[in-house]
Amino acid sequence: MSSADEKTYDVVVMGAGSTGENVADVVVRGGLSAVLVEEHLVGGECSYYACMPSKALLRGTEAIEEARAVKGAAAAVTGEQDVAATLERRDSFTHDWDDSSQVQWVEGAGIDLVRGTARLTGDRTVVVTRADGGETTLTARHAVAVCTGSEAAVPPVEGLPGAQPWTPREATSAKEAPRRLLVIGGGYVGCEMSFAWSALGSQVTLFQQGDRLLPGAEPQAGDAVLASLRDRGVDVRLDSEVRAARREDDEVVLATAEGEVRGDEVLVAVGRRARTTGIGVDAVGLEPGEYLDVDDTLQVRGLPWLYGVGDVNGRRLLTHMGKYQARQAAAAIVARARGEEASGADWSPHAATADRAATPSVVFTDPQVASVGLTSAQAQEQDLPHRVVEYPIGSVAGASLFADGYEGTAIAVVDTEREVLLGVTFVGPAVAELLHAATVAVVGEVPIARLWHAVPAYPTVSEIWLRLLETWRG
């Protein structure tokens, strides 16, 4: 270290979200030094604007509805949800957007933290502009890990920026329910936030440009979520294109083919884009705004000292996959620092597909949608020999005990040549807890013949596995 404004570490990590934290933690435990650079909150999107606050907003509604679905317990639900208490509970998970506890963890893990905006300026060099305007130059002996994540994409709708739209950040941190909320986009975020805010008092109108919700999931999932949203009074408009937007005083006005629609706030939930603009990737020959092209060790192709980990590489934009990739990248960094081969042996041959063909995800709507691996459409697109097996979850004893009139569907996509699962989707109340068993089966390519001997406990919802296998056998 030559001065207070010039520091050298084994690894410099740009971005202190959950992905960056895990990269730094693993390399430090591997005997290297590491520094995290963060311009906002340590802990990132998941902790403050995504996974945790959004699920906290949804959980109260879910708990009430689970009680109402059981005769006897339903009689105890005599009032409506306390919106203020729900928002207060949400705030407790974000620590009121205070990252002190996360900073304490970083320090306790032996990781340094530099606050400010980071940009690459050359080979293994990162310059941080601090809040006071000063700069700190960080040099990495071995690696720089870009963990800057992704940000909400805003579609090119005329006037939309001037309409002051919500992104998921505003949707999960709002201090009160807007009277009328307009939602553009029927994917995971659009559906979850429509459920959350409609239950908390907003009149929600959801615009989906395509002909179904959750277009990347099995069709049954989108159909079930659509029916549930409409039952709750959400105005869902399929095949509806928002052509223009404007703000008039305290109102947002959206122009569609059907006419103008007015609301108090508009949430844009049409996807994400790489957060690689303004971080200096052009200084090392990369294109700002593009996802980083990486190999299976998360090393950026052509730059052996640079790693792109988590959302920033575009492989799977999910917190748990970012953490998974972080462990993978950090193991490679440590191995290479020791002069060892980063062969990937530590994470097995399945790692190359874990964040492509075997990614688990949950949509926390009612019904929940829990899925892993390929859908039937994806198997068809890849020309894989397959057969689709379905079974109503409500037909198993555990489901009928869980809720009166339980409705749900289990869908398995089976490779007919190898007789292993390519993908599994569950649609129904509380099905998220079924997902990890499916993930183990898909990632492990467990033969159907062996799954037959994994006997589910009776009476649990997991008995659906037995029914799926029986249906497969015919």
From TrEMBL:
Q: Spell out the protein name for this chain.
A: Dihydrolipoamide dehydrogenase
Q: Which Pfam families match?
A: Pyr_redox_2, Pyr_redox_dim
Disulfide linkages recorded for this protein, renumbered to the chain, are 46-51
Q: Which residues are listed for FAD binding in this entry?
A: 55, 148-150, 311
Q: Which residues bind NAD(+)?
A: 185-192, 271
Question: What's the family?
Answer: Belongs to the class-I pyridine nucleotide-disulfide oxidoreductase family.
Q: Which residues form the FAD/NAD(P)-binding domain?
A: 9-321
**Note accompanying the cofactor annotation:** Binds 1 FAD per subunit.
Q: Which InterPro entries match?
A: FAD/NAD-bd_sf, FAD/NAD-binding_dom, FAD/NAD-linked_Rdtase_dimer_sf, Pyr_nuc-diS_OxRdtase, Pyr_nucl-diS_OxRdtase_dimer
List, separated by semicolons, the cofactors it needs. FAD
Query: Which Gene3D superfamilies does the UniProt record give?
Result: 3.30.390.30, FAD/NAD(P)-binding domain
Q: Which UniProt keywords apply?
A: FAD, Flavoprotein, NAD, Nucleotide-binding
Pyridine nucleotide-disulphide oxidoreductase dimerisation domain residues are 359-465
Entry's Gene Ontology molecular function annotations = flavin adenine dinucleotide binding; NAD(P)H dehydrogenase (quinone) activity
